[in-house]
Amino acid sequence: MGSYIYELDAHLDRFLRSASKARITLPFPRSTLRSILVQLTAASQCKEGTLRYWLSAGPGNFLLSPAKCPTSAFYAVVIADVVSQCKNGVKVITSTIPMKAPLFATMKNVNYLPNVLSIMEAEDKGAYASIWVDDDGFIAEGPNVNVAFITNDKELILPSFDNILSGCTAKRLLELAPKLVKQGRLKSVKTANLTVMEAKGAAEMMYIGSTLPILPIIMWDEHPIGDGKVGDLTMALSDLLWHDMVAGPNTHRICVPY
């Protein structure tokens, strides 16, 4: 946004944790990877869009073992795109596609087949996307986003990150949302296990993700959430994140030397 990369360090730290879980050795130290991403953004002259990057075991053969790969490979690309606040609500469904096991769900990786099938299932049913429910009956996440709820008691609740991806934007929202508690608009902010019944009884519901940053959800499995309209507190949270993206502290916004 503007001349800044939002939440680069948080995303890069998660990237490195995921690489460690996947047992992929870094081709460069963290500082070099960070410098590459900032320099790439500057060279692109793109001031609005997304920065995407990948790490692989590197060139080799078509076997499963990476033993013959001489070195890991780092790829990055800047994609120009218009970024704006989402103000219209969407419909979602409960996904019947099995979600990833915790080992894979908690690391950022390119195994997106379950995510893709989940999105396609939702689109086939006229919905925007879907919600995964874990084997214990608790709300998990969306296809590549976190999900959050505002209860009728004005509590902001996000599902625990124990078995799902710890979204950088979701974690930042948990840091920002207490501002609404101080204003008396929210009662509390927390992560917790939520059943489907509890979640569908929420006053407001939303997706949270780095490209959204918040997308209101107004209907789930043809069941209206709250009054079936975009909630005021959802938009207040969206405003908090949006302001943080465009004018927040430099600890979360990295200046790009264009």
Q: How much helical structure, as a percent, in the residues?
A: 25-40%
CA radius of gyration is 19 Å
Please trace the helix and strand order, writing H or E for each element. Answer: EHHEEEHHEEEHHEHEEEHE
**CATH class label of the largest domain:** Alpha Beta
How does the overall form come out from the CA principal axes? globular
CATH architecture of the largest domain: Alpha-Beta Barrel
Residue fraction in strands: 15-25%
CATH H level, superfamily name of the largest domain: D-amino Acid Aminotransferase, subunit A, domain 2
How many separate structural domains? 2
- Provide a count of the helices: 8
Unreliable residue runs = none
Number of strands: 12
Main sheet specs: 8 strands, mixed
**Mean pLDDT score:** 96
Overview of the molecule:
Its cofactor is pyridoxal 5'-phosphate. GO terms for molecular function: catalytic activity. It holds the Pfam family Aminotran_4. Belongs to the class-IV pyridoxal-phosphate-dependent aminotransferase family. Keywords: Pyridoxal phosphate. The chain is α/β, with parallel strands linked by helices and 258 residues long. It has two domains: 80 residues, no CATH class; 157 residues, D-amino Acid Aminotransferase, Chain A, domain 2. Helices cover 31% and strands 23% of the residues. It is built from eight helices and twelve strands. Strands 4, 5, 6, 7, 8, 9, 10 and 11 form an eight-stranded mixed beta sheet that branches. The model has no long low-confidence stretch (mean pLDDT 96).
